[in-house]
Amino acid sequence: MVNETQQSCSASSSSRSDGGSSSGSESSKDNSRCSTPVLDADRHERLREKMRRRQEAGDKWFSLEFFPPRTANGAVNLISRFDRMGAGGPLFIDVTWHPAGDPGSDKETSSMIIANTAVNYCGLETILHMTCCNQTKDDITGHLQKAKRLGLKNIMALRGDPAGEEWEEEVDGFNHAVDLVKHIRSEFDDYFDICVAGYPKGHPEAESYEADLRHLKEKVFAGADFIITQLFFRPETFLKFVKDCQAIGITCPIIPGIFPIQGYHSLRQLVKLSKLEVPQEIKDVIEPIKDNDAAIRNYGVELAVSMCRELLDSGTVHGLHFYTLNREVATTEVLKRLGLWKEDPRRPLPWAVSAHPKRRVEDVRPIFWASRPKSYIYRTQEWDDFPNGRWGNSSSPAFGELKDYYLFYLKSKSPREELLKMWGEELTGEESVFEVFTCYITGEPNRNGHRVTCMPWNDDPLATETNLLKDQLEKVNRRGILTINSQPNINGKPSTDPIVGWGPSGGYVFQKAYLEFFASSEIVTALLKVLKKYELRVNYHIVNVKGQNITNAPDLQPNAVTWGIFPGREIIQPTVVDPVSFLYWKDEAFALWIEQWAKLYEEESPSRMIIQYIHDNYYLVNLVDNDFPLENCLWQVVDDTFELLN
Amino acid sequence: MVNETQQSCSASSSSRSDGGSSSGSESSKDNSRCSTPVLDADRHERLREKMRRRQEAGDKWFSLEFFPPRTANGAVNLISRFDRMGAGGPLFIDVTWHPAGDPGSDKETSSMIIANTAVNYCGLETILHMTCCNQTKDDITGHLQKAKRLGLKNIMALRGDPAGEEWEEEVDGFNHAVDLVKHIRSEFDDYFDICVAGYPKGHPEAESYEADLRHLKEKVFAGADFIITQLFFRPETFLKFVKDCQAIGITCPIIPGIFPIQGYHSLRQLVKLSKLEVPQEIKDVIEPIKDNDAAIRNYGVELAVSMCRELLDSGTVHGLHFYTLNREVATTEVLKRLGLWKEDPRRPLPWAVSAHPKRRVEDVRPIFWASRPKSYIYRTQEWDDFPNGRWGNSSSPAFGELKDYYLFYLKSKSPREELLKMWGEELTGEESVFEVFTCYITGEPNRNGHRVTCMPWNDDPLATETNLLKDQLEKVNRRGILTINSQPNINGKPSTDPIVGWGPSGGYVFQKAYLEFFASSEIVTALLKVLKKYELRVNYHIVNVKGQNITNAPDLQPNAVTWGIFPGREIIQPTVVDPVSFLYWKDEAFALWIEQWAKLYEEESPSRMIIQYIHDNYYLVNLVDNDFPLENCLWQVVDDTFELLN
């Protein structure tokens, strides 16, 4: 249902590209109505549509290729890299298929799981590579079904390398990529966008360049949507290839694969694998500096930039595909110099959007998970339903249990030793915990000279927006109001504001002031007295680990705390303080004390017992100041509380 | 589904009357989530719950009794009276059952249709009387089914008067009100709230006062929810009656029926019908002044006020039921003097809310029908579904045809002769139409000395809010921008603002500036040129009677133009400019030229042809200024348009 509605909406949007469309009333009456405001048309398009729209708009783009990591730690690092490089605005990323690495399994290093994480947890449009040789039809169908179930929408269909030295055709098996393309189309209809590989110099095993072109045409005519090419060293190689493709009737997009040379050894290895020859003029430069990594990389960047410029200037190329070799520096540098790296401070929504098709209508989340979006996505991954952008008519929103704190995409980026340096090798009392919170806020080193750059509730340094509240936060954390989430009130800033803006331009964004913290029962008792004075202005929820819950929220209704008003749209309210989900968040927030902090220490050690004591006795509090046009009163509430305690 | 959710919400609301509730997390996890913000708890309660809540809060209330009119014109007048007296805040009204007037029929004067109109079009909680004698079981079940279908939720179960002089029991028939109460409970379970009549002096036909009390107890034990009494003349009569009821175990609410004496003859007639005796002390006052209507009414008001005060002061009485005899003055006066008339400038929503149970979750409407809410309700009466407060997943929102412009509740209050005086006995050209629009805006008399107090698109004088725009509106109407709907921009006024406020207190309301008008194609051509300059700021829809439609609305999405932010709530956006429903409104807006205006004149008369020309050639335009925090730019747009035309 939602799918149909959305499709009809995006269909109608294409008819108004001239800024004003004219139609008879009859046809307009047939148009359906979107049930959810479409903030970002992009979010609702399939990859081939995005490509077409960008090409029509003359808007150049890039994409990034990664291979799956070997180790679990490598996976954690790769996911952070996705987040960082995702910020530059790639149209998509792709993840290669490593037959030797159990690529379709649930292992955190498998191609399937890395692609799953990119789509669902990093919100990246993703192509999963898949090879077909040496696999049964059933294996392949199983992989494709799993990919679909996980929300993957794009497949790069490849043959793969032969098992032995020599290539032997299998009867009834998949011998060529074209077999895989046909299989996908026959089993999955139009669900997947399919990409195939093109070889600007011809495939090394092909009888001839011309024969290889004919193979490529077969793949396209079997249902491929676009082509990404093998790397090449000279722009004219690619441009000739495109011309030759067009000459035999290939009309789909052909995207050049760009390989910025990053080191002598990696180049040699790649050349060996791909059976390409490095042109003499490049060898001449590289050989003399082969031991100087920095020099080679600089040269590689120069070379790539100049080749990319030539390609883009040719008018034939609308997007560039980068072979990153899982490294950031060279590719980012090339993209920045080309002006393609677009770190837009504006967010489509105030939180990290997932690229799973079923979540494309999601437009509201509880604020509690603001610093743990991946955990929120994980705990709601089983929800099928986001009608009007939120969980549906379920009488009880079923949050998944969060037992496995070691899911690699939820894991802290910092190893145990580093966490101990930040949070204290040895705690001497609750006060030393207050100090850790305070150092995280101020950015000052702790008493042992280490900066606290993450907390169990937030794996990243303080958000720019939270920085606006830094002084007040420092003050209250010193005294045991241990803040884990907060936002200032905003009364109508432009949606393009670099710090608090989000959504399409031309709009206005608003926030109610929010403060969430742990505090002792002594503080909470005083706070409750103070809150009586603010009964009509401040909504509160106060809960301990046992679930004892004190609130003045009317009728268990959610309170909108972030919203935006945009031209020609319904109102979006992407974050709410929701009394029901707060109790699920409470379980997670309290558990993080133990799972991420207490367990750093020996059992029954004094440090561990201090954290355990806080876990058992403190309350988790959230406060909302409903009077967003006035000065935030939450600091006054906290001051009054401390005064009462004195 | 919606019902269940809502019930669970209101159930949970009762547990927080102390402003803070405490519960374990397990029970909270079971709580369901409201899919729609509950703005006004009242809207979701049944009548007996409202009574209980008001009694618990010590909040005195009143209700009003009306009888169905004899003529169609009487029906139009009664409906206006409902609207005016509804403004004073009655807890409910009730409509008597006139067996002689075909009470269950679809005639505009039937009890059923008057009650239907009160509920659905005036938004009043309504009790429909129903008598049972001389009717078959099937007739009665049919009436009850119809009442349920129309959204009526409360029945006053009565016996009714015998057909002949003497009362004869019917075997297997309904002989007493208690039979009707039992029948309703057995056939409709708990759907209806049931009221029964109590006789403070005993029913005139009862064997004795005591026997009558026993009959009353039977009716209550058969399932009645509360009692309204026959009129009486002395407070002690009522207070004794209540005590006697309680003594035999009647515990439900007993509401005194108050009859403010309004004239000598009406009093005599009522006394005759009800077989009551007027106390001597009242006769002594009335007889000498029996020809002085004003004096009798003044005395009646005095008497009623003093009796009501005594009743309220007794502590036994929480609500007063008024026999209005379909008149306004005396009852309104009594209520105002008692301080019970509560004309709250704040509206629950910016538009007239319907009291039909299925519409209780409705919280958004297209702005086009702002001045014709009854028409909107009529045209959407078949919608079953208001999920999240709006029309649902229907691919095409099915608006009913508006062919019958003579439905009494949609009819102009003014007769033809008055309309001709206002809108011109004879039109001389388009300019004379411009003049009518201008006079409606300014409130100045037209060239023949008549004030224009209504227009085909708006049966009432200019709204207070629109008055804010009066000067600009006058200027543009003079020049042929014929405005039919507009609102100023509002950037966060308190929800208690007497002019633009709505919803619960403590909130903030917002609006985007809106302007809707008819204009010639010459003006529209210039306007479209001007609008290019405002492309990013102003959304427009321009359509003619044939449905030629020009718009820059993105993706056919609705544009929120009124919204409110409230403590502890999700955001409410009660009015939108919706591109789809605009085309349905267009049909109605153009048809009103012909149906209400052109048809005042002879066929082929010049006046009629002028209106017909406008109908055939003008465009209907709506403009929204999305930049609500800035000064409204729509006047500049119009000025620029006129400048271009010069």
Q: What would you say this structure looks like, in words?
A:
Two copies of one chain form a homodimer. With 646 residues, chain A is of the alpha/beta class. Chain A has two domains: 243 residues, TIM Barrel, CATH 3.20.20.220; 281 residues, no CATH class. Helix content of chain A is 39%, strand content 15%. Chain A contains 22 helices and 19 strands. The first copy, chain A, has an eight-stranded parallel barrel, surrounded by five helices. Chain A has a five-stranded mixed beta sheet with strand order 10-18-17-13-12. In chain A, strand 5, helix 7 and strand 6 form a beta-alpha-beta unit. The radius of gyration of chain A is 27 Å and the shape is elongated. The first copy, chain A, starts with a helix and ends with a helix. At the A-B interface, helix 1, strand 1, helix 2, strand 16 and strand 17 of A face helix 1, strand 1, helix 2, strand 16 and strand 17 of B.
Termini gap of chain A: 60 Å
% residues in beta strands of chain A: 15-25%
List low-confidence stretches of chain A.
1-38, 392-396
List the domain count of chain A as a whole number.
2
Largest interface: A-B, 85 and 84 residues
Short précis:
Chain A is an alpha/beta fold. Chain A contains 22 helices and 19 strands.
